[in-house]
Amino acid sequence: MKNNTRISRINDEILKELSQIIRGEIKDPRVGVMTSVVRVETTTDLKYCKVYVSVLGDADQKASVMKGLKNASGFMRHLLAERVNLRVTPELMFKLDESAEYALHMNQLMDQISRQRKEREVQSDAE
User: What is the pLDDT of residue 50?
Assistant: First the structure.
């Protein structure tokens, strides 16, 4: 997608508003507190908006949250239309973003490797 300052500002505004809507106004119990909007990508014609969401939990919880967000997308689009002054309010498509969990997993692996190296050094010094 072309880097356009107008689209970037719209993406930032949509991200801010959707974060507030998900945090405070969605009454669906499937959408928990541990749900956050990571980034937003809007097409240049403002017809569609991909919303990347990070969810902490197991696979069943993630699937449940995604279903809840999909069911509430019409309500969120309505609130977004009231809050953001756009000619066309984009259709929201939610995508699960697992980059935070991947980074956490990689960090754990790096820590494990570091501990193993220290243990080997201690063993080799003891011999």
Answer: 96
Residue written as token pair 């953001």: 84
Burial bucket for residue 122 (CB in 10 Å: 0-12, 13-18, 19+): exposed
Backbone angles phi, psi at 94, to 5 degrees: -95, 135
Computed over every residue of the chain, the mean pLDDT equals 88
Phi and psi (nearest 5°) for 58? -85, 180
User: Per residue in 17-60, pLDDT tens?
Assistant: 999 999 888 888 888 768 889 999 999 999 999 999 998 888 88
C-beta separation of 35 from 47 below 8 A: no
CA 72 to chain centre: 16
Distance CA 62, CA 100 (A): 14
Predicted pLDDT at 76 = 94
